[in-house]
Amino acid sequence: MSGIQFSFKLNGRTVEVAVSPGTLLVDLLRENFGLTGTKAGCRQGECGACTVLVDGEAYNSCLIPALKVQGREVTTIEGLQNADGSLDPLQEAFMDVGAAQCGFCTPGMIMNAKALLSRNPNPDDKEIRKALSGVLCRCTGYRKIVQAVKNVASNGRS
Predict the structure, then answer these.
(1) 91 by DSSP, 3-state: which?
(2) How far apart are CA 148 and CA 35, in angstroms?
(3) DSSP character string of 31-48
(4) Interval 107-148: pLDDT, tens
(5) Are 131 and 112 contacting, i.e. CB atoms less than 8 angstroms apart?
(6) How far apart are alpha carbons 107 and 52 in whole angstroms?
(7) Are strands 13-19 and 4-10 parallel, antiparallel or unpaired?
(8) CB under 8 Å to 10, separation ≥6 — which residues?
(9) Largest CA distance in the chain
């Protein structure tokens, strides 16, 4: 193994890996751990498809050098699945209302919504739209996405 070795918590498990200093978190997640739910879209922080949670806050993983997560906790869309295989309420809500559309931005939308609901369990429409504003939906349909987040908030299932 070459590169700089470090450890961090990934989806609830401590992992250790070696990377070159220029490795971005999105590439580490996809290439080293096979977590392809995190999309590599624009690679400029504009589309938000690469959003993950770092210590509970939403970050564009295409902008973060992998070494910056040393000792921190990273959660990807795959990490939202419960130990029994059931989906997170946000994932269920996206399916229930048909908010996934083409699916490319969905992980980014869900991870941003997860961060929002963890700090504000009862957001209004404006707060939901603001939280999701960093994720570009190429299908142009935000109504169902906002509805899915509202459904989870109103049911207190975040």
Answers:
(1) helix
(2) 24
(3) IIH--TTS---SSSSSS-
(4) 999 999 999 999 999 999 999 999 999 999 888 789 999 999
(5) yes
(6) 8
(7) antiparallel
(8) 29, 33, 74, 76, 79
(9) 49
User: What is the C-alpha radius of gyration for the chain, rounded to an integer number of angstroms?
Assistant: 15
How does pLDDT run across 65-83, given as a tens digit for each residue?
Answer: 999 999 999 999 999 999 8
The predicted model scores a pTM of 0.93
Identify the pLDDT of residue 87.
95
Bridge partners (DSSP) listed for residue 24: 65
Interatomic CA distance for residues 109 and 128, integer angstroms: 10
DSSP 77: G
d(CA 133, CA 129) in angstroms, rounded, equals: 6
∠ CA 19-81-150, nearest 5°, is 115
Q: Locate tokens 């990934």: which residue?
A: 10
The amino acid at residue 12 is: G
Q: What are the E-state strand segments in the chain?
A: 4-10, 13-19, 51-54, 57-60, 73-75
Please give the pLDDT value at position 1: 55
